[in-house]
Write a structure and sequence with these properties.
By secondary structure, this protein is mainly α. It is built from 12 helices and 4 strands; from the N terminus they run αβαααααααααααβββ. InterPro entries: CRA_dom, CTLH/CRA, CTLH_C, LisH, Ubq-SigPath_Reg.
Length: 237
């Protein structure tokens, strides 16, 4: 025997409007989007994410101008690559060559770069050097900022474990930590160049998924479940 909850769900499902693929595609085709807007969206993504060669080629083929000097992308990507490779000292030098005010005016970013240097020393087994670096470079900043102190304590905790796989903060040694720091540096450089720090395309895709989730409550329609292919899947009846 159906429960009241199941009956309610069935009634809700039956009350949904069903939109066929033909009707949905007709509605989509009625929306006019300028090719120039699409090109600007692509260029924004290429420039922000640092695909300089692709951006240069796309500029030649589409005639779409970037709102940022493409020559500066190479320098920005050199910084990002240095952090991703664990060469944090080199990355700091490159940032200062680009614009010394970036680190001077962003203490959190500078701390995270120094924290990444400490992580790399621990990764390389340079324990004494790591302890000295933590004490001389990071501890004074931790005394001024409680958040920095907590992050420093988490990082130094790596030294207490011979097997980092059993360490509760072992994720600090994952490549994902390098990528996180590299993304933060990349965003800071973009901001210093008066450019958006995040590409517009991922935000629009998140908006798409959010709108679909809201629409699911009212209708059954051809849905995009895999944004990597953008394939419309027929509604379940």
């Amino acid at each position: 025997m159906l429960s009241f909850l199941n009956i309610g769900l069935l009634l809700q499902a039956s009350s949904k409007k069903v939109i066929t693929r033909e009707e949905w595609e007709k509605r989509l085709n009625s929306v006019k989007i300028r090719i120039e807007d699409m090109n600007e969206l692509v260029m924004n993504f290429l420039v922000t994410e640092g695909y300089v060669e692709a951006a240069e080629r796309f500029q030649l083929e589409s005639g779409t101008e970037s709102d940022i000097d493409l020559a500066t992308i190479t320098d920005r990507m050199a910084v990002k690559k240095a952090v991703q490779s664990g060469n944090v000292e080199d990355a700091i030098e490159k940032v200062n060559d680009l614009n010394p005010e970036i680190l001077d005016t962003n203490p959190q970013l500078f701390f995270h770069l120094q924290q990444q240097r400490l992580i790399e020393l621990i990764r390389d087994g340079k324990i004494e050097e790591a302890l000295k670096f933590a004490q001389e470079e990071l501890a004074p900043r931790g005394e001024e900022n409680q958040c920095f102190l907590e992050e420093l304590e988490r990082t130094v905790a790596l030294l207490a474990f011979e097997d980092v796989s059993n360490c509760p903060v072992g994720e600090l040694l994952d490549i994902s930590q390098r990528l996180k720091t590299a993304s933060e540096v990349n965003a800071a450089i973009l901001t210093s160049q008066s450019h958006e720090k995040d590409p517009k395309l991922p935000s629009l895709l998140k908006m798409l998924m959010g709108v679909q989730n809201q629409l699911d409550e009212k209708a059954s329609y051809p849905r995009i479940n895999d944004i990597s292919t953008a394939t419309l899947e027929d509604p379940s009846l």
